[in-house]
Design goal:
The chain is mainly beta. About 0% of the residues lie in helices and about 50% in strands. The chain contains no helices and eleven strands. Strand 7 and strand 8 form a beta hairpin.
C-alpha cells in the first residue's frame, strides 16, 4: 500500500530555513503526482507545492513562491521541500500527499494518499 513518511520539521526563528523530506513507498513513484500541504490550527488544509507525475510540471502556492522549493529524488523515491525565509505565518503541520496521474491541483480534496505530517513552528 502507499506509504508516505515525512521528516525534517522543527522550530526556527523567522528568517530561518528548514528542509522537509517525504519518503514514499508502495507504488511506482514516477506514475504519481506528489506534493506538500499544510494545515494551521483552526484553518483548512492548503496546498503548498506539487510536482506532477514524471516531474512534468511544478506548481507553487502564491504565498510560498520564491521562498520554498520542491524537488524530488526519483532514485530514492523521496520528495523534499526546502523552506527559506520562513515567516510565523508558515507555522503549521506539513503533510506529504500523493495521487495517481498528472495532477497540478493544490486542493487537498483531489489527493488520495497522505502522510502523518511533520510540525513546523516559526517564531518571530
Amino acid at each position: 500500500q502507499v506509504q508516505l513518511v515525512e521528516s525534517g520539521g522543527g522550530s526556527v526563528q523567522a528568517g530561518g530555513s528548514l528542509r522537509l523530506s517525504c519518503a514514499a513507498s508502495g507504488y511506482r513513484y514516477s506514475r504519481y503526482s506528489i506534493g506538500w500541504f499544510r494545515q494551521a490550527p483552526g484553518k483548512e488544509r492548503e496546498g503548498v507545492a506539487v510536482i506532477a507525475a514524471n516531474g512534468y510540471k511544478i506548481y507553487y502556492a502564491n504565498s510560498v513562491e520564491g521562498r520554498f522549493t520542491i524537488s524530488q529524488d526519483n532514485a530514492k523515491n523521496t520528495l523534499y521541500l526546502q523552506m527559506n525565509s520562513l515567516e510565523p505565518e508558515d507555522t503549521a503541520m506539513y503533510y506529504c500527499a500523493a495521487t495517481e496521474g498528472t495532477i497540478l491541483n493544490l486542493s487537498s480534496r483531489v489527493w488520495n494518499y497522505w502522510g502523518q505530517g511533520t510540525q513546523v513552528t516559526v517564531s518571530s
